[in-house]
Amino acid sequence: MPSITYVNDDGSQQTVQVAVATSLMKAALANQVPGIVGECGGSATCGTCHVYLDHSTEQFAPPSDDEEDMLEWTAAPRAENSRLSCQLVPTQDGAELVVRVPVKQV
After folding, report:
1. With bands split at pLDDT 50, 70 and 90, how would you rate the model's confidence at 3?
2. In the prediction, which pLDDT does 59 show?
3. What are the Cα distances from residue 91, in Å, to 17, 32, 64, 78?
4. DSSP of 33-101, one letter per residue?
5. Strand bridging mode 82-84 / 50-53
6. Per-residue pLDDT reduced to its tens digit, 15-74
7. Can you give the pLDDT at residue 95?
8. Is 38 left (phi over 0), alpha (psi -120 to 50) or beta?
9. Distance from C-alpha of 103 to C-alpha of 35, rounded to nearest angstrom
10. CA distance 83 to 91
11. If we measure between CA atoms, which residue out of 10, 19, 20, 42 comes closest to residue 29?
């Protein structure tokens, strides 16, 4: 199972184990990770699951045009490693991922 560590703005962390092919947004919502809202349910239309990806982005496909557009409208500033967690789906068993949750989503 992939392991995802969510690091909040205050430095607190929450690590969860999820099934392969579960988006980081769905994993956060299922485990009540603070700071991930996911208003649109994972269709990349709201930007409320914005995260900063700590690990190499090579294991994920590059952002789609829709994700790129939505990242321009996130509540927290966009960075080079900004992604929508609804679009990050681990495909490797045993993957260890770290994402930083912005101070605000809406």
Report:
1. very high
2. 81
3. 13, 22, 17, 25
4. -TT---TTSSSSSS-TTEEEE-S-GGGSPPPPHHHHHHHTT-SSPP-TTEEEGGG----STT-EEEEEP
5. antiparallel
6. 999 999 999 999 999 999 999 999 999 999 999 999 999 976 678 889 999 999 999 999
7. 87
8. left
9. 7
10. 17
11. 42
Residue 57 tokens read as: 């982005």
For residue 61, is it left (φ>0), alpha (ψ between -120 and 50) or beta?
A: beta
């912005």: which residue's tokens? 102
Tokens in use for 60? 């994920």
Residue length, the chain? 106
